[in-house]
Design brief:
The complex is a heterodimer of chains A (about 210) and B (about 425). Chain A is an all-alpha fold. Chain A is built from 12 helices and no strands. Chain B is an alpha/beta fold and about 425 residues long. Classes of the chains: A mainly alpha (about 210), B alpha/beta (about 425).
């Protein structure tokens, strides 16, 4: 009886959250207006737009990624800052569906069709907001010299067994330099990062001077 | 070890005094003992990072100098007598048996790893503030200092000034009552324009300048002094001068080993143009639970005494203003004229920040701005920046060293290092 009641409450909460997401989702016109403001000639208009980018969500991730390559540094900056705001906003507690959608969109920016800086920035944000859905795309980048270091650092940050497994599996095909870097990530996950705050840190603080 | 390569304590102090214009003071009563140097023993010091803040640390009897910029290194070498060992990789300094202690004055993203490695190499350390860039680095620095039994002084030198000491004694002896609120103010962060990314100048090893930080192309607006205005490197004035102002406040309130939780909420106005990514203005509220206390950090905030930065302490009986908090620190006459009663809290005067460090190297006591206090002060700035970046309130638990209920914030406890660098 108690289990049924709990399930009912959870289902109701999920439905309410989903409904709220649909209601809060930006319209096509709002997205067009937002992207126009990100490209506005007036820096203050661009800045205001990027600060309010959070609720724009996953749909603006690819357009912003494209604008990050703009030859106008002001527009590129506005797009980069907006992408950060979107990512951080999506990772707020209690917005799992939104986070996952943004993460999946960021994974698309890892594609080789985008400049290396854009791909590196996407990898960096995935290290902060990505979960299991980001592991495969990031792992695929470990064989790409242009962003493999960014991908490795992002995987190092993503908790869970999927990212751990991806780092371990990449060892098999890695060159000696990458292998050493992957070992570093695996060790970091299992020592300092895992143990911080537990009072069980290795007394030597982990690594040794190279 | 050649005699010329050694630096006497007196020589170091004279050299430092000459460079910085600080009073030359030799503390007395420090005796040699087995396993520790005595008052007249020589302490060989190397400087890691000789530009920026490092220029003030270069003294004529330094035994070794390190910088990733050949111009910095050459300029520093001119100010040192004899032929000091010169290098661009700090690990070569740490390998040297003729170096007893190091002064680390590199950009912030190097402080953690270099301090840990120096402790592992058996060197005592003076590391510039802010002590660390991440929560994890701070923990590693404290652990390394304790495990390797090293003296690690953080260069937040306010605690070595007479006025900060006066403020500390005044507050700790209850002269303004129980403090519930401290308001910090500071002028806004610097703003900047655009420069195109380009190849680094030939004298600069950009890869080594970046070190453990994630790779970005060279840009003159990103390097040397300007790193302060990027979240990935400096983090703005809240981490720079904030490390000074928070240090004095934590000292006055006896909170160097603060426990419990703090809820942090930050807002700010970003820079619409230019390469820098720290906000121009910033307002942060820190609400501590143990004890119940609020800090506010405001850029620009309301100036007191027309000073560009400082803090006002609000007790239930009175208030106290402390201006600055680095080498230049000023407080009100009521605190300066106050003499603690017998049985009250008496804070021993510091002979000077570097002098205190040297004294502690000999006595093996904790310095006045020990690494644990330095990490705590730096952490407050870091927490403010994390809240600002995430755009939401965060709650950090000092006991667990983790954020509560926010996975993304917890991922910011550490920053993966670019290979092959690791703590």
């Amino acid at each position: 009886m108690r289990t049924t009641f709990t399930m009912l409450i959870l289902c109701t909460m999920a439905l309410v959250t989903a409904a709220a997401s649909v209601l809060a989702a930006p319209s096509d016109a709002q997205i067009r207006d937002f992207l126009a403001k990100i490209q506005d000639k007036d820096p203050s208009v661009r800045c205001q737009a990027w600060q309010s980018a959070g609720p724009m969500g996953a749909r603006v991730v690819i357009p912003l990624g494209e604008l990050m390559a703009s030859s106008d540094p002001g527009i590129a900056k506005a797009a980069r800052e907006a992408l950060k705001v979107v990512a951080h906003h999506s990772a707020r507690p209690g917005a799992e569906a939104e986070r996952k959608a943004v993460s999946q969109a960021l994974c698309k920016l890892l594609s080789k069709q985008y400049p290396a800086r854009t791909r590196a920035d996407a990898a960096h944000l995935l290290g902060l907001v990505g979960k299991a859905e980001a592991v495969g795309p990031l792992a695929a980048c470990l064989s790409d010299p242009a962003i493999r270091e960014d991908a490795r650092m992002a995987l190092e940050r993503i908790p869970g067994s999927a990212s751990q497994k991806a780092l371990a599996q990449a060892m098999a095909k890695a060159d000696p330099q990458l292998k050493k870097a992957l070992q570093q990530s695996i060790q970091h996950r299992s020592t300092t990062r895992k143990l911080i705050g537990t009072g069980k840190w290795p007394e030597t603080s982990g690594g040794e001077r190279r | 070890m050649s005699e010329r390569a050694k630096v006497s304590r007196r020589g170091f102090l004279q050299g430092t005094a000459a460079v910085l214009g600080i009073p030359y003071v030799i503390p007395s009563g420090v005796l040699a003992a087995p396993g520790r140097p005595g008052a007249n023993d020589r302490i060989n010091i190397a400087i890691i990072g000789t530009g920026g803040m490092g220029t003030g640390h270069v003294h004529r009897e330094a035994v070794a100098l390190c910088d990733v910029d050949e111009n910095h290194l050459a300029n520093a070498a001119k100010r040192v007598q004899g032929t000091p060992f010169l290098c661009k990789d700090y690990r070569r300094i740490l390998d040297r048996k003729d170096v007893d202690a190091v002064i680390i004055a590199t950009p912030d993203h190097w402080h953690g790893i270099q301090t840990v490695h120096a402790c592992q190499a058996g060197k005592d350390v003076y590391v510039e503030k802010p002590a660390c860039r991440t929560i994890e680095e701070g923990r590693a620095m404290i652990n390394a200092a304790r495990y390797y039994k090293r003296v690690v002084q953080v260069g937040a030198q306010g605690r070595s000034t007479p006025d900060a000491r006066a403020a500390c004694q005044f507050v700790r002896n209850g002269q303004i009552g129980r403090v519930r609120r401290v308001e910090f103010w500071h002028e806004p962060n610097f703003t900047g324009g655009w420069e195109p990314d380009r190849d680094p100048p030939k004298e600069l090893d950009w890869d080594l300048w970046l070190g453990p930080a994630r790779w970005v192309p060279y840009n003159p607006l990103r390097c040397h002094f300007n790193f302060r205005w990027f979240m990935d490197f400096g983090g703005g004035f809240i981490r720079d001068r904030g490390a000074h102002a928070f240090s004095v406040a934590l000292w006055c309130l006896d909170l160097d080993t603060m426990r419990g939780k703090v809820t942090v909420e930050a807002t700010g106005q970003p820079q619409p143009e230019g390469l820098f990514d720290v906000p121009v203005t910033m307002d942060v509220t820190f609400r501590f639970t143990n004890p119940e206390l609020t800090f506010t950090w405001s850029q620009p905030g309301r100036r007191r005494n027309n000073a560009p930065w400082g803090a006002e302490y609000y007790g239930d009986k009175d208030t106290l203003i402390v201006i600055g908090g680095d080498g230049g620190c000023w407080t009100e006459d009521k605190a300066k004229q106050y003499e603690p009663p017998a049985g009250g809290v008496h804070i021993p005067p510091s002979p000077g920040h570097r002098e205190n460090w040297l004294e502690c190297i000999r006595t093996r006591q904790k310095p006045i701005m020990d690494i644990e206090a330095g990490v705590r002060a730096a952490t407050l700035g870091t927490l403010g920046n994390i809240s600002y970046m995430l755009g939401r309130k965060v709650t950090f638990n000092f006991d667990t060293e983790r954020f509560e209920g926010d996975e993304e914030a917890n991922r910011l406890i550490s920053q993966p290092y670019r290979a092959p660098w690791r703590l």
